[in-house]
Design a protein that fits this description.
Alpha-Beta Plaits, alpha/beta, six-stranded parallel β-sheet, Rossmann fold, 3 domains, Helix Hairpins
């Protein structure tokens, strides 16, 4: 018996090295010869197609319910040698190869070797800064509008996905690599957030992303306001922001409580928050009329407006400012679903 077991193991080891096409072909040949052999030995009841399929797999997998079995001496010898040993080896190899393929796909995703190049409508987070980046992902999930079906973390230092179950992971040699950003699906992403911890690297990433001409919105964080302005001059379609820590410090010293207000407006999930709304092209109104309507019907406060074609929004615009399409910035306890001219 030990010789048979060793033989089966050797056969399984050999067949496990085959490719999928070779394994399927070998299985078909083995099943075909098994069918022909059963007919040759007069096991006609076992060669009825449905019965044969059932008998073949239960026997080859050593389940052996016993409801069907060969009746002739030759048939029993044939089944116990050719069908059982060959079937076990082939099916064991197929099961093992399937398991290995599933594990490999999982490991490939955990190690950042996959690709999301064809994905659209997702979010890409470029760069990883530990707790800061974890908070970014958590905030994305908290906001219902950006609670994407897919968030992709793109980094070069991480060895594996830092937030499995909450985000996917792509790893490369350089964050400014065109190939890496393409694998992350930046071109088709709905939004891309860039924060690398180095202004020089962030600038390089911004320039590369600009070349990809992404369809979604891109926002990049810089520590230096000068570098942020430089980035905006080269990539005007991308939103390049700088740290507000110093500005907030000075403003709080002049107007106590200012930093608390700013932090509250940027918070997600509690209290009033600053939001943006894309107005339909057919929308027409004035700031004064719209301000009153928003406050009366939605308890929302209009704070800024950006017309189509403008780079910077107008903060606290005059009441007689015409509103025709464009973007609206407002403060509310919840995001508005949309507006029309009669809202």
């Amino acid at each position: 018996m030990s010789i048979i077991i060793q033989l089966r193991q050797q056969l399984a080891a050999i067949t496990s090295k085959f490719g999928w096409a070779a394994l399927i072909l070998a299985l078909c040949v083995h099943a075909g010869v098994s069918y022909a052999g059963l007919r040759l030995f007069g096991e006609i009841p076992l060669t009825e197609f449905k019965t044969f399929i059932y008998f073949y797999f239960t026997t080859a997998l050593t389940v052996g319910y016993g409801d069907f079995s060969p009746q002739t001496a030759g048939g029993r010898i044939f089944v116990s040698t050719w069908l059982m040993m060959g079937g076990i080896a082939l099916l064991t190899a197929i099961i093992g190869k399937t398991t290995n393929s599933i594990i490999e796909v999982w490991r490939k995703g955990m190690k950042g070797k996959g690709t999301f190049a064809t994905c659209t409508g997702h979010t890409v987070v470029v760069g990883w800064e530990g707790a800061i980046s974890e908070r970014v992902v958590e905030l994305l999930h908290e906001d219902e509008t950006s609670n994407d079906h897919l968030i992709v973390i793109c980094d070069t230092v991480l060895e594996e996905n830092p937030m499995p179950g909450k985000a996917e992971f792509i790893r490369g040699e350089s964050l400014s690599s065109m190939a890496l950003l393409q694998r992350a699906g930046v071109k088709g992403a709905e939004r891309t957030l860039v924060r690398t911890g180095s202004d020089d690297l962030t600038l390089a990433v911004v320039l590369t992303i600009n070349q990809l001409d992404p369809v979604g919105h891109v926002v990049a964080h810089f520590s230096s306001s000068e570098t942020a302005r430089l980035a905006r001059s080269y990539a005007p379609k991308l939103e390049c922001t700088s740290s507000m820590a110093i500005e907030m410090l000075v403003r709080s010293s002049q107007d106590p409580g200012s930093s608390v207000i700013i932090n509250e407006l940027l918070s997600v999930g509690q209290g009033a928050t600053q939001y943006r709304l894309q107005l339909p092209d057919s929308f027409e109104s004035t700031v004064g009329t719209l301000y009153k309507q928003l406050k009366d019907k939605h308890n929302a406060t209009l704070i800024g407006y950006r017309a189509d074609g403008q780079t910077q929004p107008s903060i606290n615009p005059a009441n007689d400012t015409l509103v025709r399409g464009g973007e609206l910035f407002y403060i509310a306890s919840a995001r508005l679903g949309g507006l029309d001219s009669g809202s």
